Structure formats: structure tokens, C-alpha cells
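seq as requested:
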Amino acid sequence: GCFRIGNAGGMMDNVVAARLHRPGSVGYVARSGGLSNELNNIISLSTDGVAEGIAIGGDRYCCSSFIDHVQRFESNPDIKMIVMLGEVGGVEEYQVVDAILSGKITKPIVALCTGTCADLFPYEVQFGHAGALANAKAETAAAKNAALSAAGAHVPSSFNDFKRMIATVYQGLVANRVIIPRPDFAPPPVPVDYAWAHKLGLIRKPANMVCSASDDRGDEVKYGGEPLSAIIGRGAGVGGAICRLWFRRAVPEYFEKYVELILAVVADHGPCVSGAHNTIIAARAGKDLVSSVASGLLTIGPRFGGAIDGAAELFSDAYDRGESARGFVDRMRKENKLILGIGHKVKSLENPDKRVQALRDFVSRHFESSPILDFATEVESVTVRKRSNLILNVDGCIGSSFVDLMRQCGAFSQEEANQYVKMGCLNGLFVVGRSMGLVGHFLDQNRLSQPLYRHPTDDVSFLELAEVRAHISPL
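C-alpha cells:
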């Protein structure tokens, strides 16, 4: 099942009538959820209202007991008197009796156990709740009411007298200045529910958009709930802004710094890679900045820059399943799948990628541990035995280390970390970082006044029809 929080006070007019829109001085605990609504009404008519109310349920074995909440009410300075509504069945009320007798509960408590009519039947009676059945005399409502009364609780003779008893105890506390009645005030107006408003001829248009990343209402914009001035004030920089907008939570400072390092590392890789090449071609064709940069961004995918999320999923999944590096490589070979995050066109063991080394150095200095990155490094030690350029590349290093970062920084559960990877946030880092480089290439081409680009004919291999057929595999 699912845990759900619902409106226990009815519609807004009932909430206001029961004074549930502001705190009172009474804390109550009841078995029945239905009767808790009646308690809201009784207490609002007899006192200055409810400070806190809870229904623990009528099951035989509940998640909490009367004494749990009565003790909380005892320690809450805003609660001046306690109301407890029990019923036939169970012995939890005797824990409250013991607490009163031992002096652990000193606040006045009005208590009643319903179901005294069960004594009139010549046989055991099962009432509506699973726990509403007396299996022994001590579990009868009459026995529990007598014990509560003897301990010093205020016990009415019947439910009809419950309201008067609550009012009497409350008025005594007011007279002794223990309670200073809280003034009523008009609650802020709340739009009526759509279905009800439709019946009344009113309309409350539902929202067309939902947003939790930022909020520009008020004096200043908030990123993920934090005011921009606060982000700037603590020197968080671009990394802090991204973490708030993307993850909507506070993260350690080294987390934000690692984001900034990643942006710097992936900002550019020369004019010959796909993204920069497209941006340069568009810029030289006279296109504007946005169009040129978009042309470069649209090349990002599994073959160029978009493998970070895939590498993160591959390495973390294999690690979580307890695979060895050799077993992982063998499995990928059998399944005829590429290992995203492994391999480079130019870099190799003999010509290592300084960007990967910078990332590894940061991880070793700031991360408590990096099991996913360590696993990816073990995979690299297997793959380079085949060819020296099958190294852990930037995509693989960022993907594996960022999973380590999210899982171990204390701000994410493992499930949340996996979800962000599946949503594509790591490729998002590449998009943001590489956009800086693409803007640079656009400005560079315009600054150098480069003309329209035409690819040289001698760099194209033109195939005749027979040659084309030779290159096409038969079905």
C-alpha cells in the first residue's frame, strides 16, 4: 500500500468551524479516526481548540499507543490539557494509568473508553474495530474507565457527558491562569475546490504548469528554494546554482566544486570534434549565435559527448551486481555491446588524457571513497590489454565518479542517484560545459571573419553505383 496524507477536517468551512486553522491548548489521542472528527468539534465548542490531535487506529496491534502520544503531549509546553478517547479491547490505557500514578503525567487528562454497553450482552461482542473485543475483564471499557478514574483522570459517566467534562477542566485551567485562551482570527481565503466551485457556479482554473526548480515570486528569485543572494553570498558560484536548480537540495561544497571542474573539463576539445565542427560551419554560413550553438549541441549523442549517463549506468549496474571487471568485459563482448566510457580516438596509455587525470586527482583528494570509479579503472586495466587506446575516457570517468559523488555525499539515497542518472543529468553537465566552448568557436570564427566553408573536393571519396552496391550488405 501507499502512505497518504489527506484532509481530516473536512472542507474549509468545517476546518474553520472546528478552529483547526490555528492552534489551541488541547492535545487529544483517539482510537477511531471517525470519532477524531467529532473530537475536533467537541473540543472546539468546549475550549480554545486543538493543539494536536491523532487517531492511532482500532487495529489489534497499532503502530503507536496511547502512552506514546500522551507523553509527547506532557512534554509539549503548548499543550495544557489532554483528552484521550479509548474503547473496549486491549490494555494500552493501563499504561496511561501507570504514568499518572507514577507522576510522569501531571497535566489534567480527560479520558473515556467507549463500549460499556458490551457488558449488557451475555456473550463476547466484536465491535467495528479489529481490536474492539474484550478477551478479559481488564479489557472491558468499564474496567479501564474505573482504573483511569482511580488514578486521577477526569472520566465522564458517558460519551454524552464528555463535552461537559472537557469544558469543566478547561474552565478551571483558565480560571487558574494555566491557560490563556487564544484569540480567534479569520483564516486567509482559500479557493474552493474545483468540483465544489463548479456546483456553486464559480471557477478555479487548474495550473497549466508545475515547477519546483525555481520561483521568481517575492523580492528575489529562488533556485531550488534558496534565494539567489544566499547562493552568491556563500560563494557557491555556477556549481552551487546548478546543484540548487537541478537537485533542489543543499550539497557539500566539494560537490559544487566538482561540478565546476567537470564544466571546465568538457568545455571544449578542439575544432575537429562533431559539435565544434558543426558550430564553425554554421557560423561561417552567417548564422546567428543561438543557431550556430544549437547546430553543435544537436550532434551530442551516444557517439559524441552523450555517453556519460550510459557509462554511469553500465559501471554502477555491474558494480551493484557484484560483477568482476573481467566478467563485465566478457559479458559485454558476448552480448556484442560497446562499453560506453571506454576508448578514445587520440588518447592512449602512451598519450594519457590530462582531463581524466584532473578528475581523478580531485576524487582522490575530496571523496571518502570511489567504488564505481575504482571499478571502471579495473575495467580499463582489462581493456587496455587488447589495445592501448581502450582507456577510461572523460565520459566514463565523469559518469562513474559522479555516481560515487551522489551516493556518498549524504544528500541523495542510492535510488535518487540512480534516478538522476536515468533522467540524463550527467549528459546535462556535458551540454552546459560544451556550450561554453561552442560559443567560443562562434565568436572566434566571427572575430577572424572566416568565409563560407566548403569542404574540399579532394577530401571526398566519390563512389560509383557498382562500388555502392559492393558496400551494401545483402539482407
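The longest helix spans residues 425-447.
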